[in-house]
Every structure is written in structure tokens, then in C-alpha cells.
Design brief:
The structure is a single chain. The protein has helices at 3-6, 11-18, 26-61, 68-99, 102-113. By secondary structure, it is mainly alpha-helical. The chain has a domain at 42-98. The chain starts with a helix and ends in a 9-residue tail after the last helix.
Length: 122
């Protein structure tokens, strides 16, 4: 995941959007909100690390002289930041799915199988 894809709420906005139409109870909404809220500080730190890693990689690849070790180290940091973000998204999704009923999970899975929606969102 590139940094620009994580801006603007990341999992929070995309996560809540994906849950539309699942007829969540108020208790489910509260639990899911708490899940997103609780992970927000750590996600912010991951976003900062990803930005710094991308910036260092940019600097390393545009330096006047090529330093392979520096480029490798920066690229590894970008990879780690991406892996950390993927892990966090998976962990958050697991917590959200645990709140859903089997019917809601089935509806969500059916929606996922159809692929990303195009066009205006309501």
C-alpha cells in the first residue's frame, strides 16, 4: 500500500463504507466504532513510518551517486511499513468480522466477491 492510499481515514472510512447495508444493530455499530477508534493512534504511527520510509527511498534513489546499501535499506523499510499496515488491516478486519452475525458476514463476502463498486457512492 502506498502512502497516498492510507491518507484520509484509511480503514476507518473504507471499513465503514463496506459495512453499509448490513443492517448493523446499534450495539454492533458501537463495537465497530470502538475497534476503529482504538486502532487509530497505532495506524497514525504506521502512516508516519510509511511516509518517512518512502521519503528516504526517494532521497536514496535520486542521490547524485548510487549507494546500493542505502537504497536496499530504504526499500526494506518501505516493505516493512507495507507489511505492518497489511497486518493491522487484517487484525482490524478480524475484530470487525467477529461482531457480525453469520448472515451479515455472508452478505459482506458476497459483496466482496463481486469486486469493487464503481460510480457514485450513496
Amino acid at each position: 500500500m502506498q502512502v497516498h492510499q492510507m491518507r484520509g481515514g484509511g480503514m476507518e472510512r473504507g471499513g465503514m463504507r463496506m459495512l453499509r447495508g448490513l443492517d448493523l444493530s446499534e450495539a454492533q455499530r458501537d463495537q465497530i466504532f470502538k475497534t476503529f477508534h482504538d486502532q487509530a493512534p497505532a495506524m497514525r504511527e504506521r502512516m508516519k513510518a510509511a511516509r518517512a520510509a518512502h521519503e528516504e527511498l526517494r532521497k536514496a534513489t535520486t542521490a547524485p551517486s548510487f549507494d546500493g546499501a542505502r537504497v536496499r535499506q530504504a526499500a526494506d523499510a518501505v516493505g516493512k511499513a507495507q507489511a505492518d499496515a497489511a497486518y493491522a488491516r487484517a487484525e482490524t478486519m478480524s475484530r470487525v468480522l467477529a461482531v457480525l452475525t453469520p448472515e451479515q458476514r455472508a452478505k459482506l463476502e458476497q459483496r466482496r466477491a463481486q469486486g469493487p463498486r464503481r460510480g457514485p457512492r450513496s
